[in-house]
Design goal:
The structure is a single chain. By secondary structure, the chain is of the alpha+beta class. The protein has one domain: ph1033 like fold (Roll). The chain contains five helices and eight strands. A hairpin with a 4-residue loop joins strand 5 and strand 6. The termini are close together. This is EVE domain-containing protein.
């Protein structure tokens, strides 16, 4: 199990995570991907930048991994969830995110937005510097007490 810290920008959050979106018009939608879901993405488009860390992280991401969602606009962790089905597609990016670099998407299952936690609290639990905040998809390393965070926030 890997714990992921997921920073979200407000426009994309409103488009695909705040509420489930309708994916029924996605022509080549994988059978494992639901027609309605909350969706988030990982920036991996090689034409729009070098995303080596994101690609490495994506390879480590597994279905069922816990997510701690950090809203940049609020500078707080505001939701939890689990990694659901994943896909490599231009559909979500082009339909919802104005063609940004996120080509790899995943369903956020068990989404719970009842969380309201300052980053300092999470940083203390994980043994990070007080001023740390996630920039890009962030895998919490195995040597950190991830179980403590998963239990405390019931992810």
């Amino acid at each position: 199990m890997n714990l992921w810290l997921v920073p979200v920008d407000e426009p994309s959050f409103q488009q695909t995570l705040a509420e489930p979106i309708d994916l029924s018009d996605w022509d080549d939608r994988p059978a494992s991907f639901p027609e309605r879901a909350r969706v988030w993405g990982v920036r991996t488009d090689p034409e729009q930048g070098s995303w080596e860390r994101n690609r490495r992280n994506l390879e480590r991401m597994e279905r069922g991994d816990p997510l701690l969602i950090y809203r940049n606009s609020e500078s707080r962790y505001t939701a939890t969830g689990r990694v659901g089905p994943m896909a490599h597609t231009e559909h979500v990016r082009d339909e919802y995110w104005d063609g940004g670099p996120a080509l790899d998407v995943y369903v956020v299952e068990g989404y719970d937005d009842s969380l309201d936690v300052e980053p300092e609290t999470v940083n203390r639990l994980l043994g990070y510097e007080e001023s740390f905040w996630p920039q890009g998809l962030w895998q919490v390393s195995d040597d950190r007490p991830t179980d403590r965070v998963v239990q405390k926030f019931d992810i």
